[in-house]
Design brief:
Layout lengths: L2 H11 L6 H29 L6 H36 L1
Helix pairs in contact: 2-3
Keywords: ATP-binding, Helicase, Hydrolase, Nucleotide-binding
EC number: 3.6.4.12
InterPro entries: DNA_heli_DnaB-like_N_sf, DNA_helicase_N/primase_C
Amino acid sequence: MGGVTYLTQLAGSVPTTANTIYYCDLVKSKALRRRGIEAAKNIRYLSEVQEFEYDETFLTEVENQALKIRSMAFSLLASTLGSFSKMYIKY
């Protein structure tokens, strides 16, 4: 247990700054999917429970749910990059 072999394996398994873009994309992608699931739940609620006087009002609300996902993509990317840069500076 331990020794040079262990240290070599450890060094190979620790994420480096070279992988930052990959991890940013991975975090963003998973977050967007979670937001998509949440939007789908909201759309289902709007479809089953919420009462709308006009179909156009309903469609506008559904579109708004979908547009929220796209707008979150930009804020997620910025916050993820900010978090990674803070981690990089810290270490």
